[in-house]
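User: Could you write out the 3D structure of this protein bound to magnesium ion? I've included everything you need below.
Assistant: Certainly. Input first, then the structure.
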Amino acid sequence: MTTVTTTTTPAAPAPAGPADGEERQVRRRRRLSPGRRLPAARMLGPVLVLLLWAAASAAGLLDPGAIPAPWTVLETGARLWTEGTLADDILTSLRRAGTGFALGLTAGIVLALAAGLSRAGEALIDGSVQLNRAVPTLGLIPLFILWLGIGETFKVAIIAIVVYIPIYLNTHAALSGIDHRFVELAEVQGLSRPAFVRQVVVPGALPGFFVGLRLGVTGSWLGLVVLEQINATSGLGYMMFQAQNYGQTDVILVGLVVYGVFGLVSDTLVRLIERRVLSWRRTLSS
Amino acid sequence: MAPHAEQLTRPAVRLRGLTRSFAGRTVLDGIDLDLPAGQFTALLGHSGSGKSTLLRAVAGIDHGVAGGGTLTAPERVSVVFQDSRLLPWRRVLPNVLLGAAGGDAEERGRAALAEVGLGGRERAWPSELSGGEAQRAALARSLVREPELLLADEPFGALDALTRIRMHGLLRRLWERHRPCVLLVTHDVDEAIVLADRVLVLDRGRIGLDLAIDRPHPRSYRDPLLGEYRERLLTALGVTEDPA
Ligand SMILES: Nc1ncnc2c1ncn2[C@@H]1O[C@H](COP(=O)(O)OP(=O)(O)OP(=O)(O)O)[C@@H](O)[C@H]1O
Ligand SMILES: [Mg+2]
């Protein structure tokens, strides 16, 4: 073992470095942001899991009754699709989630704008929404069934509530948290109130809105799954519920895969829109 | 008297008995002040003496601050803040055009950017500008409105010394071209002497000293004759040059 003191030049042969001990080549600091993203890196984890699953099935390590092989799930999916029931179920589920999401999104934005832009709106709306938030929305299901019947309306209503709350909360917080310095600037520049809202308040609140939007999208799928498994006569959840009664694990997995694809596609879509709209932001992930 | 001459001598800003206080503590204690149109005035004072309070009152953005007195100011007022206050979600040109009206607004915006040496940077994001460039963009934004009164609250306070000297030259040239009435708040005595034709010192809520600087422009920081003004201002500010 040799002790290296700070005054000596490194004893090890350094082919690239200059021999002069005084001049040290400047090396870039270790970067603290994670660096460039690998292309399609997000899919690496899922693909790995899929490979493990396939390998374990092929090796006979998994009970096919509990966890059927990936190809069995694919076959079942293809069969259900050609028989026409899967496409119908998917459409029904999509319509439910889509309608509920659209209503929730609209309500969330309108209420957040009303509460964020006027004191009267805030007094009327904010407290009520905070109260609404305190009650877990899925707990409202029995009440809504009594009010609206067990048809589509109550399902859409529940999904809409699940969606509007995070969108409202985040958008409202962003609207009311607008930087005071920008308000002053808008006053000085003589902006009218509509121009101020359009050019300063809304763009400034967009990052918060997108946080809420992503939570809302997730919420709409969550609501859908719960609702369809409690009481439905069509849709993906119903298909899975039936499969549970007959012990068809492969059908349940088909349903889960479709839910997963829904979630992934919608989240990617929101992410893409967000990246476009908030292109002025430079964050760690850029 | 000819109407033209009257226009020239009519004060752009007129304060009479202006008072402002925060939580019962008086910050501005009855200020009487006239700023003639087209005059370049600097306002000095200790930290906390009320310079920003006075400027914000003149700009009409001191909502909810207790106070009285009368205040008249022109219609078109621009304010330059210590930070550039560019909206991060707008590119430079749209930032400069914030609140600008009229069909030729964009043209004026481009011209203003060129004037401050930012021609070609119209499509940059504010986050891509250096501190000095951002502050020049803010100056351009204030020019687009063709202000009769330009209020600036330590506009160069966040810049390094070299950039600041450059910005002094720029501000003075812009003033010579557009001739707004300027009220420049600063804590830098040299900045005040080199730039302004009149320097006010705010002291205990009143204008403690009102000093005309009668030296030709452009002025050099090395001009020994400016030292006399510096002395008087430092004395008014209570700074005694005692090396011991
Ligand atoms: N919004 C406010 N609420 C309470 N007090 C305030 C407020 N704004 C200013 N003050 C007080 O008024 C006094 C004058 O403040 P002002 O900002 O005008 O000082 P200034 O001369 O601009 O100082 P500086 O050179 O540090 O910017 C200070 O004592 C400050 O604490
Ligand atoms: Mg100040």
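Chain A touches chain B through 20 residues (CB under 8 Å).
User: Perfect, thank you.
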